[in-house]
Design goal:
mainly alpha; about 55% helix; 4 helices; about 90 residues
């Protein structure tokens, strides 16, 4: 069983997901997060680091006052509660 858990949660893709999740949580919790952005350099053809920093700031402002964010599900629920954009 332990081997199964290790196989499931040890692949590089899960570690990347975990790091991205951590960056979101830390930013929305107003903790220092920029030190964790280093791993994104491996994805520099896919992710613009400066744009990501700006988008994290915007997300922080949009979700200000939503209460503590402890996991990605909390962020997802808060975003789903946002009003729909008017056309």
């Amino acid at each position: 069983m332990v081997n199964g858990i290790e196989l499931r949660f040890s692949p590089p893709s899960f570690e990347t997901y975990e790091q991205m999740d951590s960056i979101l949580i830390q930013r929305l919790s107003r903790e220092a997060y920029t030190a964790k952005l280093g791993f994104i350099k491996a994805y520099d053809t896919d992710i613009n680091l400066e744009s990501l920093k700006s988008q994290l700031e915007v997300l922080n402002q949009i979700l200000k006052g939503e209460g503590p964010m402890e996991c990605f599900y909390d962020i997802l629920c808060a975003v789903k509660k946002l009003p729909k954009r008017q056309s």
